[in-house]
Amino acid sequence: MLVLHGGDDPHVPPKEVAAFEDEMRAAGVDWQVVVYGGAVHAFTNPASGNDNSRGAAYNAAADRRSWETMKAFFGEIFKGG
């Protein structure tokens, strides 16, 4: 499981991320959480605007980095077909 998370997301605070991680560990899931500093909720959606204070905003750098991370993840799990 891959989670790409805005480090400053007010809708999913660090306490909830930590609880999710604990849940994944307990379930024996192969998981990873990648946190993008300076990004809030909806950081991959250009329609979210650019005002982080609203809690949801586009972040071009986090979007680009998360896209590359997702492609690498898919390459790993779908290797060879």
Short description:
The protein has 81 residues and is an alpha+beta fold. Helices cover 40% and strands 12% of the residues. It has a two-stranded parallel sheet.
Order of helices and strands: EHEH
What is the count of DSSP helices, taking H or I runs of 4+ residues?
2
User: Which whole number gives the mean pLDDT?
Assistant: 96
Content-based structural category: alpha+beta
The coarse overall form would be flat
Spatial extent as radius of gyration: 14 Å
Note the gap between the termini: 18 Å
If strands are numbered along the chain, what order do they take across the biggest sheet?
A: 1-2
Question: Would you identify the regions where 5 or more consecutive residues have pLDDT less than 50?
Answer: none
As a percent range, the share of strand residues is 5-15%
> What is the number of E strands?
2
